[in-house]
Amino acid sequence: MKIQVDDKEFELMIEYEQIKKRIRLIGIQLNVDYEGRVPVFIGVLNGSFLFLADLMKEIEIASEVTFIKVSSYEGDSSTGRVKKVIGLELDLRKRDVIIVEDIVDTGITMDHLLTELKQLEPASIAVCSLLVKPQSMQHEIEELDYVAFEIPNDFVVGYGLDYNGLGRNLKDIYRAVAVPSET
Ligand SMILES: O=P(O)(O)OC[C@H]1O[C@H](OP(=O)(O)OP(=O)(O)O)[C@H](O)[C@@H]1O
Ligand SMILES: Nc1nc2[nH]cnc2c(=O)[nH]1
């Protein structure tokens, strides 16, 4: 099935039923791994909002939930593009932290995020991502312990992920249809 989001055409890639199944399994794994602890789930806005909501319904252990945003702006020529964590309200010192993302693509965002959050001296940090693009990653993310789907290097929308701000509300995940190059 093909759909249009803004000026781009997309085709179905992962159905919601499949997403739900993977989330159920990750939830079971997290309940076991964090038994006896009270982890803090940190959703990275905006893209993670649907994933985190569905994931939390599978979590049976005591836990807290909060959200952060990663702002991105141009630094000077020596620093390049700078990313900064904003909106963190909880004290993470000695806490078990689980960062929840919609996608790890190049890994640049997650690399920045981990560097910044580690300075807050949590007891542990793990990353839980709905999607990962192994062929696109420029940073090794050792903390990437929970992954729902590994996908090829396609641009995707739906289930929280946007194209030009649109498409986050789509229930399934879609990939951009490759446009034959004009020669
Ligand atoms: O691994 P990377 O190449 O750094 O890409 C991953 C980041 O890109 C997306 O965020 P985006 O900046 O699009 O913001 P959004 O979540 O508000 O859509 C996604 O939510 C990750 O945070
Ligand atoms: N919507 C969307 N956002 C991204 N951010 C990094 N990679 C992607 C992607 O494939 N789709």
UniProtKB/TrEMBL annotation:
The keyword Transferase applies. It is found in: Cytoplasm. GO terms for molecular function: hypoxanthine phosphoribosyltransferase activity; magnesium ion binding; nucleotide binding. It catalyses: IMP + diphosphate = hypoxanthine + 5-phospho-alpha-D-ribose 1-diphosphate; GMP + diphosphate = guanine + 5-phospho-alpha-D-ribose 1-diphosphate. This is Hypoxanthine phosphoribosyltransferase. Its cofactor is Mg(2+). Its EC number is 2.4.2.8.
